[in-house]
TrEMBL record:
Annotated transmembrane regions: none
Top-level taxonomic group: Bacteria
Location of the D-glutamate N-acetyltransferase-like N-terminal domain: 48-125
Classification via Pfam families: DUF1611 (PF07755), DUF1611_N (PF17396)
InterPro entries per UniProt: DgcN-like (IPR011669), DgcN-like_C (IPR035086), DgcN-like_N (IPR035402), P-loop_NTPase (IPR027417)
Gene3D superfamilies: NAD(P)-binding Rossmann-like Domain, P-loop containing nucleotide triphosphate hydrolases
The protein's name in its UniProt record: DUF1611 domain-containing protein
Domain D-glutamate N-acetyltransferase-like C-terminal: from-to ranges: 131-328
Source organism per UniProt: Tsuneonella aeria
Length: 345
């Protein structure tokens, strides 16, 4: 999917910092393609980009308004539709990663056609996805998993790709969510795939490879999130991961969207993910943990990583803050055979 850059990133009236993760991901990993951010006066958030009206974005060279927000159910409210219409009126293409399709909003589809502009629905799965088989396939694959949704699995995956490449290894990022797809320019929006085909979609996205390189697969959801565990399970089976990296936000006190549900213990969560992954990759192992420590000062963040590493016997880092060298060491060490935590054994 080739979405014309530069981008004007949409924040709208969002007040939840996690809900702008797609715009934030683009601002972080494709900043050179982002001219500014569009937000209403009641939005307290910023990406550190110039705040622009749609007209100012066009004047600055933007070609596409990216509706880089997420909400439960992925729907478009009237304000968002009105803002998308204004962008089309101004001559911008519009891209969205929401479940509700831009093309299914008649006024947007008609206006885009009239103006000769494009609507990009990022959460469109490819056609003819096969049913997964679980048949063993060659290659080295690492999958990021999480204690919850939106805890940094994509950030960790991209950091691992860069870390492996810095060591001279061949490594490729395999995107499975809207933000990752927008950053990479391709992938499979796994949460939009019919349930029977989830594992097959990953087998198709990450086929066998014999070049000695790594596929780093972006995780989705969490086995401990009642709303999204189904996607996480299919991803674990389709990925056939050689190694898992567990991601966690230590500032979070409950499951996102279901705060009454406590977050799982880290050792238990890693062990459970390993157990589920063993259906298609019996020798899967844990290779490390990644924490999102953005809510903490640097000294506290380093202490959290050190304490977690000591407790689980695996390298632990904040990938965006401290890098992933220790986890890359673990992945590349041929003698490494770190056993699964014993919480579920």
């Amino acid at each position: 999917m080739t979405i014309p850059a530069p981008f004007l990133l949409y924040l709208g009236s969002t007040t939840d910092p996690v809900a702008i993760k797609t715009s934030r991901g683009l601002a972080t990993f494709r900043r050179e393609d982002c001219v500014g951010e569009f937000r209403h006066d009641d939005c307290p958030l910023t990406l550190g980009l110039p705040r622009m009206t749609i007209a100012q974005g066009v004047a600055a060279g933007a070609r596409t308004l990216v509706l880089g927000i997420a909400n439960a159910g992925g729907t478009m409210d009237p304000q968002l539709v009105a803002d998308a219409r204004a962008a089309l009126d101004a001559g911008l293409n519009v891209a969205s990663g929401l479940h509700q399709r831009l093309r299914d909003v008649p006024e947007l589809a008609e206006l885009a056609e009239t103006r000769g502009l494009s609507l990009f629905d990022v959460r469109d799965p490819p056609a003819a996805i096969p049913v997964g088989t679980g048949s063993p396939r060659a290659g080295r694959r690492v999958l990021t998993v999480g204690t919850d949704c939106s805890v940094g699995k994509m950030y960790a995956s991209l950091a691992l790709v860069n870390g492996l490449r810095a060591r001279g290894a061949t490594a490729d990022f395999r995107a499975t969510g809207q933000t990752g797809i927008l950053i990479a320019g391709g992938g499979v929006p796994l949460d939009a795939v019919v349930a029977d085909f989830i594992s097959g979609a990953i087998e198709q996205l990450v086929p066998a490879r014999t070049d000695g390189g790594w596929d780093v697969i972006e995780g989705q959801g969490s086995l401990y999130h009642p709303s999204f565990a189904g996607v996480s399970t299919g991803l674990l089976h389709g990925a056939q991961p050689h190694a898992l990296v567990l991601c966690h936000d230590p500032a979070r006190t409950g499951i996102r969207g279901l705060p009454e549900r406590p977050l799982p213990d880290l050792a238990e969560c890693l062990a459970f993910n390993i157990q589920v992954a063993r259906l298609t990759r019996p020798d899967v192992r844990g290779a490390g943990l990644c924490l999102n420590t953005s809510a903490f000062g640097e000294d506290v963040a380093r202490d959290l990583c050190a304490e977690t590493a000591d407790r689980l016997g695996l390298p632990c880092t904040d990938p965006h803050r401290f890098g992933v060298d220790a986890i890359v060491d673990e992945l590349l060490c041929p003698e490494s055979s770190t056993p699964a935590p014993t919480a579920l054994n």
